[in-house]
Each structure stands twice: as structure tokens, then as C-alpha cells.
Amino acid sequence: MKKIKYNQLLTLALALAVTSSYAATLVSGGTDHLVGGGNSNDDYLISVNANNAGYANTYSGGTLLTGSINVAFNNPIVGYRFVNASSGPAINSVLESGGIVSLMTTTDTSFDSFGQNDGAFYTTTDPGSNLLSPTGSANSTAPGIRDLSDFSGSVDISGITAGSIYMFYGQWNTGASLTATMSGTALSDINSGELFGGVTATAQQNIFVTRIDFVNDLGYDTISYTSNGSRLVGAVVTAVPEPSTLALLGFAGLALMLRRRR
Predict the structure, then answer these.
(1) Angstrom distances, CA of residue 85 to CA of 32, 54, 146
(2) Distance between CA atoms of 69 and 67, rounded to whole angstroms?
(3) Cα–Cα distance for residue pair 70/225, rounded to 1 Å
(4) Per DSSP, what are the bridge partners of residue 81?
(5) Which helix (H) or strand (E) element contains residue 204?
(6) What are the boundaries of each domain within the chain?
(7) Tell me: the pLDDT tens digits for 143-199?
(8) Which residues are CB-contacts of 78 (< 8 A; sequence separation ≥ 6)?
(9) Which of 35, 98, 171, 212 could share a disulfide with 207, CB 3.0–4.6 Å?
């Protein structure tokens, strides 16, 4: 059997540590049905607290709905923005962090705040590991907009090699379309196609969570998205952690150990 030389092994180990094996991609990571019906407080919970970050639906003031979900975000959060509006045409930020999620915009000129106070949002307070039965008080219940006909926004991904965008949005009675485009200087746009799917809406208020997964090996700058949704809550961005210096040293050490055993 042909032996791999030490230098080749070291090069391979470092390459595996610092690069992805994927080309630039933009795909759906799936959609969850967060809320279907009901307009009372705490129909759903979103936590961006680093100790226990994720989302859950509790339905109608804490009474659990059959099939309730408790989902952790897939990687550390690097940015988020949640919005509301007392009345159109302005969309306002309620909670924001990271500076990479743009303020959402709309071509609509009249919409309202009905649908606010339907969620509990944890930022500095740790809700605990079971988001279906959180501990402590929510830091905000303000985000939420109703009566839009569409919205759009963007995320700066120039500093992220791979990650996900979680869109919290919805529609009355039906599902809501969501598409995205990844753009960069001197690079061809990558279009996602339809990202919403796989869930059944109810004939009431619906809030959905669609995860948009991306790999950005080639140096794209922005992901922009648009939806025909009539409900809007916000967006959370997560990033796959970059390999640490210790990990790189570990790969190098493994290669050196194998060399010594030759």
C-alpha cells in the first residue's frame, strides 16, 4: 500500500480544519409551524440568550398545544433583529444585536401592531433548557406586525463562512412564500427558489419559522430575502464556529505523532 508522506498528511489535516468541503450554497433547512391560531399572550417563545437559545410554541398563555415543539438554534447566534409597528408605513426595531441583520422594509403603506404580545422574548434572562416551560420573566413581548402584504430584508454574511438565517414570519389562513438571493462582488447570484414548505397552515393567524442554510466559501457579501407574508416578527442568524487554534494544533500534533510511528 502506498504510504502518505508526513508533509502530505499535515497539509491534508490543516486543509480539513480550515476549509469546507462544499461550494457556496443557499438552501432551505426546513420550516416549523410555530403558532396556528390564537391571539393571546405567550403563544410562542424565542430565546437569544446564549445559555439556552432557541424557540418553542406554548399556545394561548402557556397551555401546551399537542405537538408543541422545543427547538435549539443549530449554532451560536451572531446577530438578530425583531421588529414591530404601531402603524404603517414605518417598521421599527424592538430588539437588535450584531449589526448584520438589516431593518426589514415593505412596499405596504398601512399596517398595524395586532399580533404583538403574542410572543415572549428572552435576551438577558435565561429561560432554562425547557423552553416549553421557561423560568424567569421574558425581557420583551413587543415584537410583531400584522396586515403587511409583503416584506424584505438582508443579512451581511461577509464575515461568516457557513451558517443559517431563521426567519420568523407568517400569514393569515395560509402559508407564506419566502425566497432568498446570495450576492457578492464579481460573483454570480445564487437564488434559493421557494424556501417555505412542509407545514400545514390553519385558517387563523399563522407564525412560521423557516431556516435558511448557507455556505459562503467563495466570499459572498449578502443574503437578501423577500416574502409575501402578512405577519412579521424578525430574524436570527447563527454561524458555524470557525476552527480554533487549538484544533489546528491538534491536527498538526496528530500528523506529527503518525510520522514518529513510521
Answers:
(1) 24, 24, 9
(2) 6
(3) 25
(4) 96, 235
(5) none
(6) 6-260
(7) 999 999 999 999 999 999 999 999 999 999 999 999 999 999 999 999 999 999 999
(8) 98, 100, 160, 163, 237, 238, 239
(9) 35
